[in-house]
Amino acid sequence: MSRISNAARIVLATLREIFDETAYDRFLRRTQMESSPAAYAAFWREKASSHERRPKCC
Amino acid sequence: MTKLLSIFGWGAVAALGALAVGVVALHRGEPISTLWLVVAAACCYALGFRFYSKFIAAKVLALDALRATPAERLENGRDFVVTNKWVVFGHHFAAIAGPGPLVGPVLAAQFGYLPGTLWVLAGAVFAGCVQDFVILLFSVRRDGKSVTEMAREEIGRVGGFVAYGAVIAILIIILAVAALVVVNALKGSPWGTFTIAMTIPIALLMGVYLRRIRPGKVLEVSVFGFFLVLLAIWGGQWASQTPAMAHIFTLQATNLAILIIVYGFAASAVPVWLLLAPRDYLSTFVKLGAIGLLAIGIVLVHPALHMPAVTRFADGSGPVFGGKIFPFAFITIACGAISGFHSLISSGTTPKLIARETQTRVVGYGAMMAESAVAIMAITAACVLQPGIYFAINSPAGVVGQTPVAATATISAMGFPVTVGEMQSLAHAVGEQTLFNRTGGAPAFAVGMAHIFSQSLGGERVMGLWYHFAVMFEALFILSLLDAGTRATRFMIQDALSHIYKPLGRTSWYPSILITSALIVAAWGYFLWQGVKDPLGGINSLWPLFGIANQLLAAVALCVATSIIIKTHRAKYALVTLVPLAWLVAVTFTAAWHKVLDPDPHVGFLAQARVLAAGPVTAATPKLIFNNQLDAALTTIFVVMVTLVLFESVRGWFGVLSGSREARLSETPFVMTHLLEEQA
């Protein structure tokens, strides 16, 4: 049972990393901001350039 | 005792793998079950990972679990972050998996299921996985530097310049060919066009939801977006059956091409949070789900492969694309076996997340194995179709005939019987007006996928929904590739232009954004237009060009890897990268020679130009002749560029081996990790 829950936790963590949710959490911690439209806008101001430069494979 | 068990266990895996590969390779006549393909692939991957990647990790790369990675040393909570290895694996796989491993194997199925299967398995285990693994590790040891920077530092300025040029060229060709695949999948299809058109407002809605309503809740909004997309697929059926809507959404290839070019320009100029990011999230969500579903479907249904093991078209007379099995099977299937583009991902975001060097094995080698498994699924989806149907869908009208009667007669005469009635009832089942001349691989893959899915869920009644789900899933991530690729190329061009005029390098300066976006979109739009207007269907000329460019980039990456291995005084192990490099050079240079100089007009660009010049002259003839000459020139430039890198690399290797040149590496110095202490 614990193996299943561990696997489920890793899958969720993977999805959160792929979908930038973890990156947003890290941003909130680093900047000591509360989640809000303004904080999310600031997150994207910081992230936009690296996200745009990220190549996607064919 | 454990060792004995291990020997016995791996011996059984090897024996089972040999049996499965033997059945796949030697069985003739009756159709075989796809399970043989699945077992052969699973055993090859297991053996490759257990033995070959372990050998590379221990002997060639000497992975060091005690050496701190850039994620630990430079951790900033932004780009450099220590991350769980399975999370990095998922992240890396999501970045490398695109439409390539789906489309290439479907096209190469014209040679039969065997050549593609053998190349995907051997190519991945001995070349593709190795490239991704070694480039990832070398980037980790250089603070996450890109392959172009490593080429400059380890080979020289020529290597860096060529790698940079190759990346821009390959991106432009990829974007054109990907857009052409979407055009060919959506032309004359109101259902598909409606569904894909709806994904644009869905992505915008997701962007606004994330920005204003629930900031950062990406998984939640992706699930919401996914349900909206399913609704759009269902709505597409309604649109296709409502005359007024069907009229609006039934578009010719040229109209679709114009719309995609306009979309590409607009999407690259709007803020990233509004369209690029939500579309990216949605496409990744659908992509991971669809690949998982297809894997489950193939194992559960395990349909029979109707395509012969090797078709008569190995001699180069195939209707899908011109050229013999060697070298064209090996450049048509790129991403499923080896893809130079992966070296950009392996030296991009991924190395900045790796917690320990030892994890590069599972992430670099392992994720490429998963990508290769996707290519095996694509071969399966294409080969479960009756061969006559496969060829009727994938053959351009310019080759097999303009009318359904002519096309079925030509294909049947080739030895693959198919009737107009069969094609009509299949088109009706999937909700299309016709499935003839739907080149590009995506429609054939979608029909195969719908065939497999409908056997396990819902039967024939829902085949149309499954078909359009598959088309939507391919088109969705091709459109996000267009968007992301245009932006990534724009940044590279802006970097280069900043040396001429500084403000052009400012990524927030709108005139620069608009000028460089227009430049990139014009470049891939030109090749897209060329493909749409090509009498041979476009894929015949553009896909080999993409394959050659992609494999040549892999050759550059393998030159970088070989240079580093030789400089680290492990020359006796350099064969690990030298053998795939030699194979790629042989394949791509031969393919390039054929594409430029082959006297067969279905293969050679210049021969095609000569035939056009000698034939009846229409208003389009001069343009078509110029396009063929341009493709020939581009192929020649690719080969010359890579020859320069090879020459520079070989000079460097001999210099180091003979002692006349210092083996200077640009690795960051060893720093002991603290992660082990923290864990303890």
Secondary structure elements and their pairing?
The complex is a heterodimer of chains A (about 60) and B (about 675).
Chain A: H1 2-18, H2 21-31, H3 37-53
Chain B: H1 2-26, E1 32-33, H2 34-60, H3 70-73, H4 85-96, H5 100-108, H6 113-140, H7 147-154, H8 157-186, H9 190-213, H10 218-241, H11 243-249, H12 253-269, H13 276-301, E2 304-305, H14 325-332, H15 342-346, H16 360-383, H17 387-394, H18 397-400, H19 404-413, H20 420-429, H21 442-456, H22 463-497, H23 510-533, H24 539-567, H25 575-597, H26 605-614, H27 621-658, H28 675-679
Antiparallel strand pairs in B: 1-2
Quick structural gist:
The complex is a heterodimer of chains A (58) and B (680). Chain A has 58 residues and is mainly α.
Beta strand % of chain A: under 5%
Terminus-to-terminus distance of chain B: 30 Å
Q: How many DSSP helices of chain B? A: 28
Global structural class of chain A? mainly alpha
Radius of gyration of chain B: 25 Å
Instruction: Report the order of strands and helices of chain A.
Output: HHH
Describe the structure.
- The complex is a heterodimer of chains A (58) and B (680).
- By secondary structure, chain A is mainly α.
- Chain A contains three helices and no strands.
- Chain A is flat.
- The mean pLDDT of chain A is 86.
- Chain B has a two-stranded antiparallel sheet.
- With 680 residues, chain B is mainly α.
- Chain B contains 28 helices and two strands.
- The longest helix of chain B is centred in the C-terminal third of the chain and has 38 residues, at 621-658.
- The model of chain B has no long low-confidence stretch (mean pLDDT 92).
- In chain B, helix 5 (100-108) packs across helix 16 (360-383), helix 7 runs antiparallel to helix 8 and helix 24 (539-567) packs antiparallel against helix 25.
- The chains are: A mainly alpha (58), B mainly alpha (680).
- Chains A and B meet through helix 1, helix 2 and helix 3 of A and helix 4, helix 8, helix 9, helix 10 and helix 13 of B.
